[in-house]
Amino acid sequence: MTQPHEMPDNPGDPEVTDPEVIPGEEDTTSAEVIEDAEVVEPEPELDGVEPVDAQAEAEAAADTEAALAADLQAQLDERTDDLKRVSAEYANYRRRTDRERTSIAEGARAGLIAKFLTIMDDLDLAEQHGDLEEGPLKAFADKFRGVLAAEKLEPFGAEGDEFDPEIHEAVQDLSSGDDKALGTVLRKGYRVGDQMVRSAMVIIADPVDTTEEEE
């Protein structure tokens, strides 16, 4: 049986008291115990934080990607529409420019050809008088008419044709009814393609009744 510690007769005697801790000296015993002890990190408290749902995150990421793809597609469609509009405007510009260029070229050609029509009139008079049946003048007339025909010069306005005030210049009206035709052609009209170079100068008469002529 263990005997209880007996109280010393003089408790205040330095020989029986605990050793005094001297300032400046560290108690290494407690430090060594703390170092040897395993440090356990406290787990963070997750009060109010719900656990992460992997499926929800995947769905959210998929929605974000779909929204981004839709936005990119909308931008691409808008740029495509802009490109189509610009292409259409440029195509219209080219067509309009080509028409204007063609019109200017035809106008210049028609203006040049119009200067030679007086020569054509003289050749027509010479032909009516029988001066183009043979000889150098006939050869010249054939070549001259061939050059203008190559430039698509075409005459119009022959006796018996229906009168058209848009292309026929009437100097006299000898018709008696509402139907009017060309009686006498004083000067032929000419056109280059669809462009009229000169109107025909005519005298208006009644249309010829072909049924009476056949009888």
UniProtKB/TrEMBL annotation:
<dbReference type="GO" id="GO:0051087">
    <property type="term" value="F:protein-folding chaperone binding"/>
</dbReference>
<dbReference type="GO" id="GO:0042803">
    <property type="term" value="F:protein homodimerization activity"/>
</dbReference>
<dbReference type="InterPro" id="IPR013805">
    <property type="entry name" value="GrpE_CC"/>
</dbReference>
<dbReference type="Pfam" id="PF01025">
    <property type="entry name" value="GrpE"/>
</dbReference>
<dbReference type="InterPro" id="IPR000740">
    <property type="entry name" value="GrpE"/>
</dbReference>
<comment type="function">
    <text>Participates actively in the response to hyperosmotic and heat shock by preventing the aggregation of stress-denatured proteins, in association with DnaK and GrpE. It is the nucleotide exchange factor for DnaK and may function as a thermosensor. Unfolded proteins bind initially to DnaJ; upon interaction with the DnaJ-bound protein, DnaK hydrolyzes its bound ATP, resulting in the formation of a stable complex. GrpE releases ADP from DnaK; ATP binding to DnaK triggers the release of the substrate protein, thus completing the reaction cycle.</text>
</comment>
<dbReference type="GO" id="GO:0005737">
    <property type="term" value="C:cytoplasm"/>
</dbReference>
<dbReference type="GO" id="GO:0006457">
    <property type="term" value="P:protein folding"/>
</dbReference>
<keyword id="KW-0346">Stress response</keyword>
<feature type="compositionally biased region" description="Low complexity">
    <location>
        <begin position="53"/>
        <end position="64"/>
    </location>
</feature>
<protein>
    <recommendedName>
        <fullName>Protein GrpE</fullName>
    </recommendedName>
</protein>
<keyword id="KW-0175">Coiled coil</keyword>
<feature type="compositionally biased region" description="Acidic residues">
    <location>
        <begin position="15"/>
        <end position="50"/>
    </location>
</feature>
<dbReference type="GO" id="GO:0000774">
    <property type="term" value="F:adenyl-nucleotide exchange factor activity"/>
</dbReference>
<keyword id="KW-0143">Chaperone</keyword>
<feature type="region of interest" description="Disordered">
    <location>
        <begin position="1"/>
        <end position="64"/>
    </location>
</feature>
<dbReference type="GO" id="GO:0051082">
    <property type="term" value="F:unfolded protein binding"/>
</dbReference>
<feature type="coiled-coil region">
    <location>
        <begin position="69"/>
        <end position="96"/>
    </location>
</feature>
<comment type="similarity">
    <text>Belongs to the GrpE family.</text>
</comment>
<comment type="subunit">
    <text>Homodimer.</text>
</comment>
<keyword id="KW-0963">Cytoplasm</keyword>
<dbReference type="InterPro" id="IPR009012">
    <property type="entry name" value="GrpE_head"/>
</dbReference>
